[in-house]
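Posting for a labmate who doesn't have an account.
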Amino acid sequence: MARHGGGRGWYGKLIGAVLGVTVAAAGASVWTAQAGAVDDAAPKPTASASPSTDVKPVSKEIVHASDKGARGVNITIDDGPDPVWTPPMLDLLEKYEVKATFCMVGTQAQAHPDLVKKVVAAGHRLCDHSVSHDTGMDKKSEAYQSQQILDTERMITEASGGVRPMYYRAPGGAFTPYSRELAASRGMRPLGWNVDTKDFERPGADAIVATVQRELSNGPTLLFHDAGGDRSQTVEALRRVLPWLTEQGYSFGFPVR
């Protein structure tokens, strides 16, 4: 799975505005973005790593398949929730009767619990996308990976009012055997993607749509973003892609658990 390149320094700018949120002091409070680096200071997770009675382990294998079968597609939306761009995407999903999986960054979920609740109320699923969006997580200690995954699980669950994330997507695809095993033990299936729309590069709505149409044969899981700056191109692309997929005979589903 490709790692997103530079041009995403919005994370570093945004974290200072996230309502004074402090997460596991050893560098984890800096939201670093796709190209950033986070101090590998082995912070300890504030969420419990011990299984609870309502947590059922799932497969640790990275999933791409759709629960709708061979003609199913999974819409996945990363990095939010964002107060500007998540609402219009929710409106489009409702209009076209599409359910999506929202891969949320912990600090964003904590800062915007109202949006997390709206996502859940609309029937979409939640996905843990780490605290700091560190694409170098696979080079960091197990303690650091644990903090990133478990703290985000806690943040999302609290923000949602008790609904737990069902998946874990490593930033930039930076999975490790340990992170997959940990997430799976917490009931979060590791989630990959097949079509990276590169919408974070803002190539234009036409280019985003063309990428989906060209690369859909790679597999059913499509990657979009609802945070990280101006996402008007993504909104416009979704406005065109969602009905096009229906016209092509695809059904919208969720990644297999």
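Reply:
Got it, the structure tokens are right above this. Residues 4-52 have pLDDT under 50 and may be disordered.
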